[in-house]
Amino acid sequence: MRITVMTAGEQIISLDVDSNETVENVKALLEVESNVPIQQQQLLYNGNEMGNSDKLSALGVKDDDLLMMMVSTNSSSGGAAPATGSDLGMNPDGSALNPAAFQQHVRGDSNLMGQLFQTDPELAQVISGSDLNKLQDVLRARHRQRSVLQRQKEEELALLYADPFDVEAQKKIEAAIRQKGIDENWEAALEHNPEGFARVIMLYVDMEVNGVPLKAFVDSGAQSTIISKSCAERCGLLRLMDQRYKGIAHGVGQSEILGRIHVAPIKIGNNFYPCSFVVLDSPNMEFLFGLDMLRKHQCTIDLKENVMTVGGGEVSVPFLQEKDIPSRFLDEERVLNEASGSGATVPSGFTEKKNNTVANPTSQQPKRQNTSEGPEFEAKIAKLVELGFSREAVIQALRLFEGNEEQAAGFLFGG
């Protein structure tokens, strides 16, 4: 059954005990919870003092009953104290005055040990062991936890009686209410949505690029398919890189675009498909299968079946399990640190910005950009941005028409 004990300091302690438990054993549990030695405890039920040898059932204590605990300065109350009572006291930091005597006393009571294994398994384990230093550490930790809880209760109580016109007090009340809401939301998530706290493994599939097997990261949030310089070299494609397509890839951080490989074969399942790549100087991502090729080859990401289909369903390949993905790909913290520390791009959501050339889709030759980008160029950008176009689109259009504002506007409106 569960009983509630209220101390003189208004601390409320809940205990799960047997109805045939003796009052002395209840006091031993309270000693651990309240840091008040057994010999200084006086337990009252319905205003009457309870003797150490009395059983709870004999005194009429029932489930959910309330007991009062008074603290006395002598050890003569509640029946005769054990001969070793002076050894069972606690230090101000919560540790036992005599840890060996405390351990022996608790070990000798099977009912008390059973209660501890239910309410505090860690403490029960160290009491059953032989490491007295660890026992003292656990007792100190419990004392600190109780002190923190007591302080929080005192602060909450003080806020209840605070001046309603005190701005600082109202701010603390608001913060306490907000934190309570957060804690309740966290507890609800743990109960109803525990998978939300698990790490999400990104989507990888097996592919071959120019005959070389790779673990391809599938990312529909990336504008283009990318390959790292080292991976392109390993696949024998670096010699095909067109350096006229240099630029900057923007995402979380940024990375230098070294060029573009216009076409190379990739093998998905048993089928071959043509693919183009942007080559990045990015050490943390070998090969990323982006939105451009996902669209081109009519790919479907089926999370229910955990597969990616290609070519409208002609090929289906499973996403890799965590055990099949190289550990360096799963080291997400390292990747993020590299991205923020060295400027390397994190592929998800990355977009291309060519800062040296703009590709001509008909002739495959780069257009010459306007090199006189000064205050006048910025003024043209501002005018076109006011019309509702994005700054990136405006800059690209102005460069495409070598700074001609009217032609750039016509191009934007026509697109």
TrEMBL record:
Compartmental location: Cytoplasm
Annotated stretches, region: Disordered: 339-375
Keyword annotations: Aspartyl protease, Cytoplasm, Hydrolase, Protease
Residues spanning the signal sequence: none
Residue span, Peptidase A2 domain: 214-293
Biased composition (Polar residues): 356-373
Keyword Hydrolase applies: yes
Span of domain Ubiquitin-like: 1-76
Listed PROSITE patterns: ASP_PROT_RETROV (PS50175), UBA (PS50030), UBIQUITIN_2 (PS50053)
CDD domains linked: RP_DDI, UBA_scDdi1_like, Ubl_Ddi1_like
Domain of life (superkingdom): Eukaryota
Gene3D superfamilies in alphabetical order: Acid Proteases (2.40.70.10), DNA helicase RuvA subunit, C-terminal domain (1.10.8.10), Phosphatidylinositol 3-kinase Catalytic Subunit, Chain A, domain 1 (3.10.20.90)
Domain UBA: 375-415
Main location: cytoplasm
Homology family: Belongs to the DDI1 family.
Protein name according to UniProt: DNA damage-inducible protein 1
Species of the source: Camelina sativa
Gene symbol of the encoding locus: LOC104765105
